[in-house]
Amino acid sequence: MDVVSRGFVGRRSEPDPRIPPGQYLESAFPVLSIGATPNVRTETWRLDVSGPGGDTGSLTWADLMALPTEKVTVDLHCVTQWSKLDTTWRGVPVAAVLDAAGVDVADARYALVRGHGGYSTNLPLADLLDGRAWLAHTYEGAPLAPEHGGPARLLVPHLYLWKSAKWVSGIELRREDTPGFWEQLGYHEYGDPWREQRYVGD
Ligand SMILES: Nc1nc2c(c(=O)[nH]1)N[C@H]1C(S)=C(S)[C@@H](COP(=O)(O)O)O[C@H]1N2
Ligand SMILES: [Mo]
């Protein structure tokens, strides 16, 4: 056993099939925020949703808490090349959130999701509705910490983590795509980590 394993000392381990190309395994949970962490209180929390037809709806924290929650264990992939495996969250599927807001999504194809502090990010609406996107409020069994987007953040783990807007304040449903904060600065409009869609044109 010793003889066999000695050959591997100092070498990198086999590539993990759960780590996308160009990523490395991170065990900590780094914080990446533009600007300071806003103090968002659940007492005054609101999520404003608007539809392409001009209709609007909004949810309070109590509205959000009344919606069915899912517990998910997912891998996170940040465009700065760290990936973190097996993170466990609780949150409300975005489809249920939009349903509760009562906004007509029929004509919408894209979403621009806004977070406190001026942040925004754009995604195809389909990616928010297909059961792989949540408004997450619990991380590893505890209320989501402010630096990670608490009280509630978007969680879209099949895309690079910049698409998971922290301190979510609004979801604008649109007919046409429009770039968010990082997308205006040259990041990819979709951001699939398995296709290494880091920057425009990737
Ligand atoms: N509101 C807001 N959301 C945000 C950001 C931000 O600066 N503001 N940064 C994004 C980026 S670039 C990344 S990589 C992830 C980081 O999430 P974390 O700090 O919980 O690791 O949040 C994303 N969501
Ligand atoms: Mo990021």
Give the topology:
Layout: H1 2-6, E1 24-25, E2 46-50, E3 56-60, H2 61-65, E4 70-77, E5 82-93, H3 94-101, E6 110-115, E7 119-124, H4 125-129, E8 134-139, E9 142-143, E10 153-155, E11 168-174, H5 181-184
Parallel strand pairs: 1-5, 2-11
Antiparallel strand pairs: 2-3, 4-5, 5-8, 6-7, 6-11, 8-9, 8-10
Write a structural description.
13% of the residues lie in helices and 31% in strands. It is α+β, with helices and mostly antiparallel strands. The chain has a single domain, classed as Oxidoreductase, molybdopterin-binding domain (Sulfite Oxidase, Chain A, domain 2, Alpha-Beta Complex), CATH 3.90.420.10. The strands form two sheets. Strands 1, 4, 5, 8, 9 and 10 form a six-stranded mixed sheet that branches. A five-stranded mixed sheet has the order 3-2-11-6-7. A hairpin with a 3-residue loop joins β6 and β7 (119-124). The relative contact order is 0.19. Molybdenum atom binds at residues 32, 78-80, 161-162. Molybdenum atom is lined by residues 32, 78-80, 161-162.
